[in-house]
């Protein structure tokens, strides 16, 4: 309910369309449920490992070095008193992407640019 309110306030399309299987473990049962809910599973190709590595400079540099056009980058959301190093990692990542002539976009934008917006499958990467 909160998510829908935020989407309405931001004047963006309502609803959740994307799902990331925890730890990348995706089962046939999950696939069936995602189909029923109209969701798509999304996996990343560039991972921060930020729950283990707590060096924001290293994470940001590593992610920006590995990222390519169309990469799906996973970095955890920094929060107060939790994963605060991810804020520096995000700043470093965005700077590194800009230097490579790349920019961050949402999964929805990436899907649309790749022509996958109406793809019926529940999973793509």
Describe the structure.
There is one protein chain. The longest helix has 15 residues, at 85-99. This protein has helices at residues 2-10, 28-37, 56-66, 85-99, 107-114, and strands spanning 18-19, 40-42, 46-47, 73-74, 123-124. It has a three-stranded parallel sheet with strand order 1-2-5, covered by helices on one side. Residues 118-125 have low confidence and may be disordered. The protein is 42% helix and 9% strand. Helix 3 links the parallel strand 3 and strand 4. With 125 residues, the protein is mainly α. It contains five helices and five strands; from the N terminus they run H-E-H-E-E-H-E-H-H-E.
Which spans of ≥5 residues are poorly predicted at pLDDT below 50? 118-125
Q: What pattern of helices and strands is seen along the backbone?
A: HEHEEHEHHE
Output the radius of gyration: 16 Å
For the report, how would you describe the main beta sheet? 3 strands, parallel
Distance between the termini: 28 Å
- Coarse morphology: globular
Strand content: 5-15%
Q: Order of strands side by side in the largest beta sheet?
A: 1-2-5
The chain-level structural class is mainly alpha
């Amino acid at each position: 309910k909160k998510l829908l309110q935020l989407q309405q306030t931001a004047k963006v399309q309502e609803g959740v369309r994307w799902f990331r299987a925890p730890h990348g473990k995706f089962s046939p049962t999950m696939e069936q449920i995602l189909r029923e809910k109209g969701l798509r599973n999304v996996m990343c190709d560039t991972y921060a490992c930020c729950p283990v590595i707590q060096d924001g400079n290293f994470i940001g540099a590593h992610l920006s070095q590995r990222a390519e056009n169309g990469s799906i980058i996973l970095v955890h959301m920094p929060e107060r008193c939790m994963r605060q190093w991810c804020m520096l990692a995000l700043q470093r990542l965005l700077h590194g992407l800009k230097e490579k002539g790349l920019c961050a976009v949402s999964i929805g934008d990436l899907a649309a640019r790749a022509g996958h917006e109406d793809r019926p499958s529940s999973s793509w990467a």
